[in-house]
Amino acid sequence: MEFPSELFGSVWHTTSLERYSRIVGDGCIKANPDIPDSERWGTNLGEKHFPFVRSLGGISVFDFRDFDADATDWATFVPCRTEWQSAVWIEVDISKLGDSFKSAQSIRELWHEVNSTRKFITQIEGAVIGSIPTLAFKQVLVYDTQKSSFSTLA
Fold first, then answer.
1. 11-152 domain in CATH 1.10.287?
2. For 103-132, how does the pLDDT look when each residue is reduced to its tens digit (9 = 90+)?
3. Residue 64 backbone phi and psi in degrees, to 5
4. φ, ψ (nearest 5 deg) of residue 47
5. Which one of 46, 56, 109, 125 is most buried, by most CB atoms within 10 A?
6. Burial, 107: exposed, middle or buried (Cβ in 10 Å; 0-12, 13-18, 19+)?
7. Which domain of life is it from (predicted)?
8. Which run of H or of E encompasses 86?
9. Is the pTM of this model over 0.85?
10. What residues pair up with 143 in beta bridges, in sequence order?
11. How do strand 28-29 and strand 132-133 relate by DSSP bridges?
12. How would DSSP label each residue in 43-58?
């Protein structure tokens, strides 16, 4: 599978259509939304094994600005998680986030610095510490597995 050109070169957060509706209602993407751990990625082993970005109080974002698609494991989430019929992709305007945005490189460096064993997606997983206001959304796309294509949601 080829990496989708729609996502290349930007920072994105992905979610489901149902969760996107909650995000719009809340006015932001929350670092710890009120959803069961059973519906989150990488939480089935309990809190001490939660993903690295979550342990920081952050929101995982995909940093596709400067990465090698051939050398990176992105297919678990891109263009859509295998168990989902569709995925919402929110392009994040990092210039509106100040110091709360952490690039994929800085997350990788911090992971090594603190000698963490928690999961993260090397080379592409960045973070936003705290929330991401809807005012920081550049565009919102939805990927439909039935059509195998992206369309504009907002």
1. no
2. 999 988 988 898 888 878 878 889 999 999
3. -95, 25
4. -55, -40
5. 125
6. buried
7. Bacteria
8. strand 86-92
9. yes
10. 87, 150
11. antiparallel
12. -TT-GGGS-HHHHTTE
What CA–CA distance (Å, rounded) separates 14 from 91?
9
Using pLDDT thresholds of 50, 70 and 90, give the confidence band for residue 37: low
Tell me the C-alpha distance between 48 and 153, whole Å. 36
Which pLDDT score, from 0 to 100, does residue 45 have?
A: 55
What does the alpha-carbon distance between residue 26 and residue 57 come to, in Å, rounded to a whole number? 18
CB 119 within 8 A of CB 51: yes
Report which DSSP code applies to 118: S
94: left (phi over 0), alpha (psi -120 to 50) or beta: alpha
Bridge partners of 137, per DSSP, are 92
The confidence score (pLDDT) of residue 122 equals 78
